[in-house]
Amino acid sequence: MRKGRAAAGSLVFLVLAPGIVAGLVPWVLTGWRVRQPLPYWVPLQVAGLILFAVGVVVLLHAFWRFVIEGLGTPAPVAPTERLVVGGLYRYVRNPMYLAVAAIIVGQAFALGQLILLLYAAAFAVAVVAFVHWYEEPMLRRQFGDEYETYRRSVPAWWPRRDPWNAAGVDHS
Fold it and tell me: Which residues are CB-neighbours of 2 under 8 A, at least 6 positions away?
């Protein structure tokens, strides 16, 4: 898949998947209304805004890696031609899902809407199940030993301290 098509497909998927999960659903649940803050909520609101912003940056970076490195999209209907292991993927296998969770939790703290914490927990359960039962087996079939080496070297959910580098391959 050429980079232009990969970029267009990734943009569509960005709007449809994370846009709905981390944007539309939180809006439906809360109307993005800030609950009357209590004095101790101000630090949580600031932390929430920071978490939200970091989540957006990580999400955009992860999508970009799929375009420039993988030559495809995160969408299962238009997968990458190459395994994406560069950038933030050198630290953790699932930065995209972690970013979406951070965006949801960030909104929960910034808005003071506890319903979003429950939603984030439901999202986490669904994502872990999806990764375990669908995504990892599909990546094993598509990329074989390359994925197995990556899977053994990079944690799924808790980032490594130092970046992983596959046997001298530059994945920066």
Answer: 71
Cβ distance 106 to 55 under 8 Å? yes
Is residue 170 included in any domain, yes or no?
A: no
Domain membership of residue 7 as a residue range: 3-153
Q: What is the CA radius of gyration of the chain?
A: 17
Tokens of 51: 């978490």
pTM of the predicted structure, to 2 decimals = 0.92
The DSSP secondary-structure symbol of 90 reads G
Which amino acid is present at 40? Answer: Y
CB 77 within 8 A of CB 144: no
- Count: domains in the chain: 1
Task: Give pLDDT tens digits for 50-103.
Answer: 999 999 999 999 999 999 999 888 888 888 999 999 999 999 999 999 999 999
What are phi and psi for residue 35, nearest 5 degrees? -70, 155
Angle ∠(131,134,138) on CA atoms, nearest 5: 105
**In-domain check, residue 162:** no
